[in-house]
Structures are given as C-alpha cells and as structure tokens.
Amino acid sequence: QVQLVESGGGLVQAGGSLRLSCAASGSIFSTFRVNIMGWYRQAPGKQRELVASISDGGSTNYADSVKGRFTISRDSVKNTVTLQMNNLQPEETAVYYCNCRFFVAGDYWGQGTQVTVSS
Questions:
Q1: Which of 23, 40, 98, 100 could join 110 in a cystine, given CB atoms 3.0 to 4.6 angstroms apart?
Q2: Do residues 88 and 15 lie in contact, with contact meaning Cβ atoms separated by under 8 Å?
Q3: Three-state SS at 41
Q4: In whole angstroms, what is the distance from residue 63 CA to residue 51 CA?
Q5: What 3-state class would DSSP assign to 92?
Q6: What is the pLDDT of residues 42-87, one digit of tens each?
Q7: Is 72 in contact with 52 (CB distance < 8 Å)?
Q8: At a CB cut-off of 8 Å and minimum separation 6, what does 106 contact?
C-alpha cells in the first residue's frame, strides 16, 4: 500500500513563504516505479489544479501562475517531494494535495494541507 503525508501548511501573510513537504511510503514502492510526483491545490468552489510536478528523472512542470515563485524538488531515494512557495498571494489560499503517480499502478493522493494567505 501507499501513504502520503503532507506537512508545512499554515497561515502566512501575503508576500510570505511556506515550504510543503510530502513523505511517501508503503509497500507499493517495492513493486512499482514512480512516474511523477506533484502538488495540486483546490480552493472552495474551484477545480483542483496542478501547481507543480516533477518526474522521476527530474523534469519539472509548473502552473504559469507560480513560475518564478515556486520550486518543486524531490528525493527519489527517500520518496519525498517538497514545494517551496515564495511571495504567496491571497488567491492562492487552498488545500494543497500531494500526488504520486506510479507506472502501472496509477495515482495516489495525500489528505491535503491547508494553506491560508492573508491580505
């Protein structure tokens, strides 16, 4: 099985920074290979959207709105992924979810961590 545990969410003022971390573990890692790990966010009444992702080979992808401000990184050995978020804006208040996509086995999600950016 797989467990994704997110941490680092909280309350921050506009312009501030947060670092989100996701620790992935479980027996699934002994059987399947990770394709992509990423962070998504969902605000009330809105669709869940991709914030940033990183492939097992290190290729990154960012939403246009966060380019230059957010940085995603991962440790493929430890199966962790981190999202450094700088210059946060109130409209980025949302629940942020860690996603892990495996070859063959598909997608798994964390429970989410709340990020609140005050004006």
A1: 98
A2: yes
A3: strand
A4: 5
A5: helix
A6: 999 999 999 999 998 899 999 999 999 999 999 888 889 999 999 9
A7: yes
A8: none
CB 52 within 8 A of CB 83: yes
Q: How far apart are CA 63 and CA 71, in angstroms?
A: 11
What is the rounded CA–CA span in Å between residue 96 and residue 43?
9
- Contact yes or no for 80/74 (Cβ under 8 A): yes
Q: Whose structure tokens read 């099985």?
A: 1
Count of beta carbons in the 10 Å neighbourhood of residue 63: 15
Beta pairing class for 49-55 and 18-25: unpaired
8 A C-beta contact, residue 41 and residue 97:
yes
Q: How many CA atoms lie within 13 A of 16 on its CB side?
A: 15
Q: What is the mean pLDDT of the chain?
A: 95
